[in-house]
Design brief:
The complex is a heterodimer.
Chain A: E1 3-7, E2 10-12, E3 18-25, E4 33-39, E5 45-51, E6 58-60, E7 68-73, E8 78-83, E9 92-99, E10 110-111, E11 115-119
Parallel strand pairs in A: 2-11
Antiparallel strand pairs in A: 1-3, 3-8, 4-5, 4-9, 5-6, 7-8, 9-10, 9-11
Chain B: E1 2-5, E2 9-12, E3 18-26, E4 36-40, E5 47-50, E6 64-69, E7 72-77, E8 86-93, E9 100-102, E10 106-110
Parallel strand pairs in B: 2-10
Antiparallel strand pairs in B: 1-3, 3-7, 4-5, 4-8, 6-7, 8-9, 8-10
Classes of the chains: A mainly beta, B mainly beta.
C-alpha cells in the first residue's frame, strides 16, 4: 500500500526555521523525482522544489530559493524540506508529491495528505 | 517565465459536458509542453486526472479527457456528475526556472 506521510509542520515566528519530512512506503522511492508543493489558505497550488531520484540535483521556485533546502535519504525512503528565514507568506499546507520515472516533470501521481505551516508572530 | 491562465469558474448541469482551458503565456519563449491536470476537493490533497496532455492514470474515469491546441490545453469532463464539483488545476514543466508551474485553478460547479 502506497503511503506518503508529511510531518514537521507547526507554528513558527517570522525568521524562524522548520524541517518538514515526508516518509514514504509501498513503492520504489529511490527511482522517483519528488517535489514539495504548497497551498496557502484559500489559494491555489504552488510548486516549491524538486529533487532528482538520486539527490544529485535540486531546483527551487524563485519565492523560496536561498531559504529552503530539499533533500532526501533513499535508505530511509524519506524526503525533507529545511525551511529557514520563514516569512508570513510561507504559511501554507505543504504536500510532498512523486513524479514517476520517465514522465514529464509536473506529473504528480502520488500525494501526501499535507502538513500545515503557519508563520506568525 | 511561463504563466498558465485558467478561467476562475465553469459550471454545467448533470449529464452535460464542460471544458476547462489552460492557456500558456510565456514572455521569453513558448514552451507549449504537455500539461497535467489535477482535481482537488476542499481540504483534500490533489489527484492526478490527466498527464502528458491526454494520458489517463489507472482508475481515472474515461469521462475525463485532455487535449491541446497551440498554446491552450483543455480538460473535458463529459456526463457531468455531482461528484465532479471540485477545483481543477493545470500544470506544466518549463525548460528553465521556475521548472514547474500551476495554473490558478478553476472551480467547477454542477448546477
Amino acid at each position: 500500500q502506497v503511503q506518503l506521510v508529511e510531518s514537521g509542520g507547526g507554528v513558527v515566528q517570522p525568521g524562524g526555521s522548520l524541517r518538514l519530512s515526508c516518509a514514504t512506503s509501498g513503492f520504489s522511492f529511490s527511482t522517483y523525482v519528488v517535489h514539495w508543493v504548497r497551498q496557502a489558505p484559500g489559494k491555489g497550488l504552488e510548486w516549491v522544489a524538486l529533487i532528482s531520484f538520486d539527490g544529485s540535483s535540486q531546483y527551487y521556485s524563485n519565492s523560496v530559493k536561498g531559504r529552503f533546502t530539499i533533500s532526501r535519504d533513499n535508505s530511509l525512503n524519506t524526503l525533507y524540506l529545511q525551511m529557514n528565514s520563514l516569512r508570513p507568506e510561507d504559511t501554507a499546507v505543504y504536500y510532498c508529491a512523486t513524479n514517476p520515472p520517465r514522465w514529464l516533470l509536473g506529473s504528480f501521481d502520488m500525494w501526501g495528505l499535507g502538513t500545515m505551516v503557519t508563520v506568525s508572530s | 517565465q511561463s504563466v498558465l491562465t485558467q478561467p476562475a469558474s465553469v459550471s454545467g448541469s448533470p449529464g452535460q459536458s464542460i471544458s476547462i482551458s489552460c492557456t500558456e503565456v510565456d514572455s521569453d519563449v513558448a514552451t507549449y509542453t504537455l500539461v497535467s491536470w489535477y482535481q482537488q476537493y476542499p481540504g483534500k490533497a490533489p489527484k492526478l486526472m490527466i498527464y502528458e496532455g491526454s494520458k489517463r492514470p489507472s482508475g481515472v474515469s474515461d469521462r475525463f479527457s485532455g487535449s491541446k491546441s497551440g498554446n491552450t490545453a483543455s480538460l473535458m469532463i463529459s456526463g457531468l456528475r455531482a461528484e465532479d464539483e471540485a477545483d481543477y488545476y493545470c500544470c506544466l514543466s518549463a525548460p528553465h526556472g521556475p521548472w514547474v508551474v500551476f495554473g490558478g485553478g478553476t472551480k467547477v460547479t454542477v448546477l
